[in-house]
Design brief:
Elements: H1 17-36, E1 40-41, E2 47-49, H2 50-53, H3 58-62, E3 67-68, H4 80-85, H5 88-95, E4 98-100, H6 105-114, E5 123-132, E6 144-153, H7 159-174, E7 180-186, H8 187-196, H9 203-210, H10 213-227, H11 232-242, H12 248-258, H13 263-282, E8 289-291, E9 305-311, E10 320-325, E11 339-345, H14 346-355, E12 369-371, H15 376-391, E13 396-398, H16 405-414, E14 419-422, H17 425-430, E15 433-437, E16 443-446, H18 448-457
Helix pairs in contact: 1-7, 1-14, 7-13, 8-13, 9-10
């Protein structure tokens, strides 16, 4: 019988112990900032009912949802004519009732509706879990990846948006990123733009197109707008708006003139100004907050401020994004509950930190010290030493069986263990342990108390 070579589905990955230490450094840093701003952690299932997810991400998003086939003979109850017609869209509802979650926001909205009598509003939660998208894998884009989300529902205050700006700034700064841009826009401004060119019904088509400006350029956006029902005169009206230059104040001043006849557009400008004022009062040193009119975020459920974060140090897509959604829970029967949330793209952040060599040396360290094992007598002597090290909070291992020194040193090198304690007849008779620095090769004879003190400080 032939043996099938094991492989992974495209867009998924295994993570080594070394990689997991780095990933947890990212997760722990972001979680610490979330908690600092009053957010509490929840988790939701990996799969949701398909109807929970469908229709929440727009047509393009719906195509990227991973559907799960029903258990058992899932074709048995499907109409034969439906199978003959080979219409996959109509067949999906018959053969699939569940799907892997596409993001964490829609499952969170579902969670709020189901637990509305148990939670206190405003409800501030964060969530760090994997999501799945049937996208084409490429650098920085995976089919299975983690999101780090924070959302607050039940509060219309724009103070929430301002604090999200601070959360982005603090978390990414703590991770060592120095040159990144927090982009902000407002869907009401985009709606106002669609109004003044006389195409309010094409707001979604407009936002999907202009959101691609940095990828396909103005010519590509213009071509797509024409394909989506806009005319050349419409595009000429749009160009000066989507190509706005200058400071945030300059852009807002220009927009006020352009959107003077749009109540919706002016409301969006007012909301952006309020967020800027809050940020200024909270922390005036954030200079990388930029109003970007082309930012649309492409998702239908955003209704107010929207965010996107990009690093300028590495060629990478967005490493964070989010926005205000006033009617998301209404889709599940809970009306008039506004919410706003953001997400960190942990996998992309990992790639950025790796490329820039920003992971702290202590982050990648696992075991700090290995105790040698030459024979049964040395092993028995080492056991209480091992326990003392661990009681003191020092990550320690005892080589699990007697072996030659070279093999044990190779093990320590392979695991990047910085120190080795050598225990032989001399050490046992003198009660002084030999501590070897694996990087310098230096060896010291120390009491167990001195070993503990030294390892605590390095």
């Amino acid at each position: 019988m032939s043996v099938t070579k094991p492989s992974l589905p495209k867009g998924t990955r295994d993570f080594t112990p070394q990689e997991m230490v780095k990933r947890n450094y990212i997760f722990d840093t972001i979680k610490t900032v979330f908690r600092k701003y009053g957010y509490a952690e929840i988790q939701t299932p990996s799969m949701e009912n398909l109807q929970t997810l469908t229709g929440k991400y727009g047509d393009e998003g719906d195509k990227l949802i991973f559907k799960i086939l029903n258990s058992g003979d899932y074709l048995a109850k499907v109409d034969e004519q439906l199978l003959t017609n080979r219409d996959s869209q109509k067949a999906i509802s018959k053969i699939s009732e569940k799907a892997l979650r596409y993001d964490l926001t829609v499952p969170f909205a579902r969670y709020v509706v189901m637990h509305q009598n148990e939670i206190t509003f405003p409800f501030k939660r964060f969530q760090v879990q994997p999501v799945w998208r049937a996208d084409r894998p490429q650098k920085g884009r995976y089919r299975e990846f983690y999101q780090c989300d924070a959302d607050v529902v039940g509060s219309p205050s724009l103070l929430n948006e301002a604090e999200f700006v601070l959360i982005y700034h603090e978390a990414l700064s703590r991770l060592g990123l120095k040159d990144f841009t927090i982009k902000i826009n407002n869907r009401k401004i985009l709606s106002g733009i669609a109004e003044i060119i006389g195409k309010p019904e094409l707001i979604v088509d407009m936002t999907v197109a202009i959101d691609k400006l940095d990828k396909i350029g103005l010519e590509g956006v213009s071509k797509e707008l024409l394909e989506r029902g806009f005319t050349e005169p419409d595009i000429e009206k749009l160009k000066p708006v989507i190509l706005l230059q200058g400071s945030n104040t300059d852009k807002l001043s220009s927009l006020k003139a352009v959107l003077a006849t749009s109540e919706t557009g002016l409301k969006g400008i007012e909301e952006i100004e309020t967020v800027f004022n809050y940020v200024s009062r909270l922390k005036s040193q954030i200079s990388n907050l930029e109003l970007d009119i082309t930012l649309a975020r492409g998702l239908n459920y955003y209704t107010g401020c929207i965010f996107e974060v990009k690093t300028n140090e590495v060629a990478m897509g967005s490493i964070g994004g989010g926005g205000r959604y006033d009617d998301l829970t209404g889709m599940f029967g809970l009306k008039d509950l506004t919410g706003v949330g953001i997400s960190f793209g942990a996998d992309r952040i990992y790639d950025v930190l790796e490329e820039l060599n920003l992971f702290p040396a202590k982050t990648v360290q696992g075991t700090k010290v290995l105790i040698s094992n030459f024979d049964e007598k040395a092993e028995l002597y080492a056991l209480p030493v091992l326990q003392e090290l661990r009681t003191a909070g020092i990550a320690a291992e005892l080589y699990p069986s007697s072996a030659k020194l070279k093999k044990q040193m190779s093990y320590a090198d392979a695991k990047n263990i910085p120190y080795v304690i050598l225990i032989g007849d001399d050490e046992m008779s003198s009660s002084l342990l030999t501590l070897k620095n694996m990087q310098s090769g230096e060896q010291q004879k120390l009491s167990i108390a001195d070993v503990l003190e030294k390892l605590k400080t390095v």
